[in-house]
Amino acid sequence: MLDFYLLKAYANDNSKQRISRMDFFLNRASSLIFASIDLTDRLEVANSLNKKIKDTLDGEPVIFPFSNDAPPDIPRIIIESKDRRYHCDVSMTQISLNYEEEGVPHKQIKEIKDEYLNILTKVISVVKEIWKCRVTRIGFVIELMAFPNDPIDLVKSTFIRDNAIGNSKELQLSIMNRLTWEGLEINKGYRILTTEKMHHGKEEPEEVQKIKKALAILIDINTPSEKVQDFSTESMLSFFNQVFEYLPEDIKLLLPTVK
Predict the structure, then answer these.
(1) H-run or E-run covering 216
(2) Cα–Cα distances in Å, from 225 out to 52, 107, 136?
């Protein structure tokens, strides 16, 4: 695992200015709530969740007939929005609320914050008040993207000593920290990576796919698996609200002038 702060010391000033001026857009975000979920009556579970979130996740619930012998983390219930930006997945061990842009990302975090947290608040209320689950662990993952002409060259020239590596097809820089955050012990991971995003033009059919080179930042915040908790509704809402509050500062830590 590469030490980001050590690599940053090698950064070329001109390159650092170029990367920090780029606009990063939200590609996907996921909230993870870990609990033992009773799926004996999957239709009832799906209906109770759908009733709470159907104003935004307005698609019909999909219930999969997997047996209890199937891996417990495979979703048994999925409810998504008709525009496919949101989907909520329920397995035997967790429930997740996911947001993802199908085409090239074009929204800032602040543009979906209120809508996302409103849906998540309803999901949490179902988990705690209707399903009566003990939530033992929570997490949040977000991926942002920018679209420079040559992402690999940009990462090399910004973070890596000249001639340190050869002709690369892909680059990833990773950090994982364990810290206490607002009184809660958490893991906080960062990844900067070069990738590709499939998309099609507004006037083109979906099957006409194009590849767009991208630079991605992935931030993963979660409570340690070995630290079993019993999260209340209030503590979960506080965690996820604080995640959104501090995300701009996390991004500035990596790329100082990105808003």
Answers:
(1) strand 210-222
(2) 29, 32, 8
